[in-house]
Amino acid sequence: GPSELRAGLLSRMDRSTAMGTPLSPLPDHARAGRLELPRRTPGVTIAGLPFEIEVIAENRSTSVWPVMAPGPAHVVMLGTRWRTPDGAPVAEDPTAGTLPFDVAPGEQARGRVGVVAPSGHDRLVLEIGLTQDGSWFPDPIQATLKVKPRAAGPR
Fold first, then answer.
1. DSSP string, the chain
2. Closest of 131, 25, 133 to residue 79, by C-alpha
3. How far apart are CA 48 and CA 148, in angstroms?
4. What is the pLDDT along the chain (155 residues), one digit of tens a residue?
5. How far is CA 117 from CA 25, 53, 71, 141, in A?
6. Contact 53, 114 (CB under 8 A)
7. What is the sign of the dihedral through the CA atoms of 128, 132, 136 and 137?
8. From CA 127, how far away is CA 135, in angstroms rounded?
9. What are 125's strand-pairing partners?
10. Can you give the pLDDT at residue 56?
11. What is the 3-state secondary structure of 105-120?
12. Closest by alpha carbon to 73, among 32, 19, 128, 22?
């Protein structure tokens, strides 16, 4: 009946994406990608102000990256990390953005990351990288941003 059919589809979706890519941790050799920012980052932001950055991700491995799945388990995502200019970690969000579809070897996909600069720093380095299950791929891209404090509201 319909409920058995639905259960079968859901159990299949637990194991693969909508495009049929297996949902499993990628081996190290499949964690090869290149990121590019099609537009320059703003260079300045206000602490606590959300904004988005468009990213182009290219799969430079021989494996398809799983993306089109209902939950975050084993899905390749875009992450953000904030660091001080000397490299000390400040904040991290390994699930800050998504890609639109499973990315085949050699293929590019455009995604967006949601970014919010933490307060308490006047200059920060933003790293954007590919992640899977909270683990970062090598070679994130970096942009240094001046961070202005958020102005107090009217009294």
1. -HHHHHHHHHHHHHHB-TT--B-SPPPGGG--EEEE-SS---SEEETT-EEEEEEEEEE-SSSPBP---SSSTT-EEEEEEEE-TT--EEEEEEEEEE-SS-B-TT-EEEEEEEEEPPSS-SEEEEEEEEEETTEEPS--EEEEEEEEPPPPPP-
2. 131
3. 10
4. 656 555 555 555 579 999 999 999 999 999 999 999 999 888 999 999 999 999 999 999 999 999 999 888 999 999 999 999 999 999 999 999 999 999 999 999 999 999 999 999 999 999 999 999 999 999 999 999 999 998 766 66
5. 30, 13, 26, 16
6. no
7. negative
8. 14
9. 83, 144
10. 97
11. CCCEEEEEEEEECCCC
12. 22
Residue 76 structure tokens: 């390749």
Could you tell me the two tokens for 135? Answer: 């683990």
Residue type, 26: L
Q: How many residues does the chain have?
A: 155
